[in-house]
């Protein structure tokens, strides 16, 4: 996994924009393929390419390969519970005056969408303490945060 820098590598999440603007988000795996009625795009053809590459599948259809933005990741991440949508997260961050270095307590992590937005807002000098009484939700949230950030941040306690 390349953690958002350099060429795509196995383990990276990639957002592919195909014909007619259809979006597909995939995690690159050895031997993996994206199948659609427009043809097959092999993950091996994406690995090693830079962010923003245009790739051609088996039927000649073009796909734009980009690293997902946080907004894109949140909308397509695995869910154990409902998510806080990006527009709502922005409102929460603004109304709560969350800033870099801030200490935030989060009650209920759900699938981790708001946790990701909070972690981005508080930065490495802040601290996020999240409470979740349902273990399965905490597990999904932890996995989603680790998938997007590449690790569980030291600034986050769940």
From TrEMBL:
One of its GO terms (cellular component) is tRNA (m1A) methyltransferase complex. This is SAM-dependent methyltransferase. It holds the Pfam family GCD14. GO terms for molecular function: tRNA (adenine(58)-N1)-methyltransferase activity. It comes from the Bacteria. One of its GO terms (biological process) is tRNA methylation. Residues 75-145 form the tRNA (adenine(58)-N(1))-methyltransferase catalytic subunit TRM61 C-terminal domain. Keywords: Methyltransferase, S-adenosyl-L-methionine, Transferase, tRNA processing.
């Amino acid at each position: 996994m390349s953690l958002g820098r350099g060429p795509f590598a196995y383990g990276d999440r990639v957002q592919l924009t195909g014909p007619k603007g259809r979006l597909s988000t995939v995690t690159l795996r050895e031997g993996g393929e994206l199948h659609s009625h427009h043809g097959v795009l092999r993950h091996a053809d994406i690995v090693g390419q830079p962010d923003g590459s245009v790739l051609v599948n088996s039927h000649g259809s073009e796909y734009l390969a980009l690293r997902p933005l946080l907004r894109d990741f949140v909308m397509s991440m695995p869910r154990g519970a409902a998510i806080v949508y990006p527009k709502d997260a922005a409102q929460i961050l603004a109304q709560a005056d969350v800033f870099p270095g801030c200490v935030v307590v989060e009650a209920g992590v759900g699938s981790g969408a708001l946790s990701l937005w909070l972690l981005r807002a508080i930065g490495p000098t802040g601290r996020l303490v999240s409470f979740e009484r349902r273990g399965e939700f905490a597990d999904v949230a932890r996995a989603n945060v680790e998938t997007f950030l590449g690790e569980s941040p030291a600034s986050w306690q769940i």
